Amino acid sequence: MNISSLTRYSNLLVVPLYSTPPTTTTVRCSSANNIAIEGCNLNFSFVANQANAVPVPILKDCSLRIPSGQFWMLLGPNGCGKSTLLKILAGLLNPTSGTVFVNEPKSFVFQNPDHQVVMPTVDSDVAFGLGKFNLTNDEVISRVSNALHAVGLSDYMKRSVQTLSGGQKQRVAIAGALAEACKVLLLDELTTFLDETDQVAVLKAVRNSLDTSAEVTALWVTHRLEELEYADGAIYMEDGKVVMHGDAASMRSFIEDKQSVYIKQINS
Ligand SMILES: Nc1ncnc2c1ncn2[C@@H]1O[C@H](COP(=O)(O)OP(=O)(O)OP(=O)(O)O)[C@@H](O)[C@H]1O
């Protein structure tokens, strides 16, 4: 199922990146108009249980800024806070402090492909969210067909969703968001449950969706570093903090440096 048109956002705040020390990146809030996703000084804490109401900090002063029309990845080890940050950007969680701006409409696609599809056939699922737009039948058909084309599923229009692979279901969910003219796709570890062929197909579908429409921006949570080759930029988190924020080439060398330090440590 797509959660589309989530409405909570703060005022537009924006930000040039300023020069960065070697292992951390800081994003400063100011103003710019080509930014699709922005978080400024986001903190988030959970209260673990009512008996012990001491908040546990999960996100620590996280800032990020993603230009319109780009495919960015949110990387980092298990438990560092990626999904929490994504849910705050989606409006599914409220930050303890800090501000968020995300272009509307936005759509959140979940990790489990079986939670994505609600209708019996591919075309009816993609059309599911279009009822609110008061479109003619021809407009609905055109939107569904263009969206399925963008994700490489033009030949699947009349297929039963029950017969789709996990990756195909993810692509149907993305097509549903595109059909609704969604401007921001927030994608939470979509490749976790998929085999390698499906993983690549979903990545290519997102890449192609952005290449087809300059209006769409995507943020993709993953811990698979090899997926970086499809991205324009990336954010690397550790222990609730954003430690690197930059284009894909800078991120690759940052991660290679990190890996070589780690290899030296385990060999010494
Ligand atoms: N509802 C919750 N209550 C308490 N702690 C939580 C809750 N949800 C997440 N956490 C904790 O917050 C931290 C960050 O979790 P999050 O799911 O954002 O990390 P992640 O980087 O997405 O991890 P993964 O890659 O394993 O999915 C973890 O330590 C997790 O245990």
UniProtKB/TrEMBL annotation:
Pfam families to which the protein is assigned, alphabetical: ABC_tran (PF00005)
Keyword Kinase carried by entry: no
Entry-linked InterPro entries: AAA+_ATPase, ABC_transporter-like_ATP-bd, ABC_transporter-like_CS, ABC_transpr_CbiO/EcfA_su, Molybdenum_import_ModC, P-loop_NTPase
Domain of life: Eukaryota
The protein's name in its UniProt record: ABC transporter domain-containing protein
GO molecular function: ATP binding; ATP hydrolysis activity
GO cellular component: chloroplast envelope; membrane
